[in-house]
Amino acid sequence: MAELIPFSAAIRDRASGAHSDSEGAGFMSSLLKGELNREDYTALVVQHYFIYRALEEATERMRNDPIAARFISDKLTRIPALETDLAFLLGDNWRDEIVALPATQRYVERIEQVGKTWGGGYVAHHYTRYLGDLSGGIYIGRVVARQFGFETNGIGFYLFGDIADPRAFKDVYRTELDEAGWSDDEKERIIDEVLAAYQFNTDIFAELWTERTVAA
After folding, report:
1. Does 23 have pLDDT greater than 80?
2. What CA–CA distance (Å, rounded) separates 191 from 121?
3. Residues 149, 76, 95, CA angle at the centre, nearest 5°?
4. What is the pTM for the complete model shown?
5. How far apart (Å, rounded) are the C-alpha atoms in residues 75 and 71?
6. CA 27 from chain center: how many Å?
């Protein structure tokens, strides 16, 4: 890939269609329109738990990777917030009640695979999840809080209390992407992995929508 634009911009441009498809999936669009109930939202939180458990376990393995470690920040850690959210939404025995959807399990398996063998692939998933959380995710949290009358309980996942300026944080992250020194072939592989991450996410939304329809 010719270096005509910064790598971070290339990722954003190439992934823009996939991002729109993912965010426009029926489940998420209905959630943001206020058409879903608390149980539907809880089902989404459950799937997030499995995804971020895999991602943050991979983070621990990648702390010594010379490039991947540049992107790791404990300020991004989401599992404690997700555990608190699930205890609020499902009760103290929430661990006994949650199940990963098939699409979520496929996503988790991919994160586990690249998180053991490929720093660039790990960064692709890290980028897709956390920069999305610091962008549209913050907005989603506000919508959900308003819809269900939450304050902080139930939406802790979307609150980044240790990041005072999300925009500045994202700018630094994108600079790291631009300066990581990957080869052109590696950059292409990373972009492909970002696109795969968006597809996994879209598949989860589709299964959540199907589950909801079946339950109705």
Report:
1. no
2. 9
3. 60
4. 0.93
5. 11
6. 16
